[in-house]
Amino acid sequence: MFEQPYLMVVKAKKDNFTEGWGQCLAELVAAQKLNGNNFEQTLFGIVSNGEIWEFGKLIGQRFIKNSDLYVIKELDKLGGVLNYLFEQCKLQFTS
Q1: Does residue 2 fall inside a structural domain?
Q2: Does 40 map to a domain?
Q3: pTM value?
Q4: pLDDT per residue over 48-82, tens digit each?
Q5: 48: helix, coil or strand?
Q6: How many angstroms separate the CA atoms of 37 and 46, rounded?
Q7: How would you class 12 by CB atoms within 10 Å of its CB: exposed for 0-12, middle for 13-18, buried for 19 or more?
Q8: According to the lineage, what is the superkingdom (predicted)?
Q9: Where do runs of H (alpha helix) occur along the chain?
Q10: Phi and psi angles of residue 57, each rounded to the nearest 5 degrees, phi first
């Protein structure tokens, strides 16, 4: 069964995070439409090159990119953010 997407993950090809965020935002908008244009939902995006991880979210027509960078070497911090995102997605899925 196809579920509603709440999280998009995009690879920053050639470490180009600007293009990665362009692709991620396009996917978030497409997911929003797929989810019935429910502007109350928060959709999350991740752009990463495997070493550096950046996070953002789309709420309605407002995109917010977290200014913090997370690196794989700080696995506890990165894991905490990923766990938070998964929990937020799960909460929306069950509500």
Answers
A1: no
A2: yes
A3: 0.91
A4: 999 999 999 999 999 999 999 999 999 999 999 99
A5: strand
A6: 21
A7: buried
A8: Bacteria
A9: 17-34, 75-94
A10: -150, 155
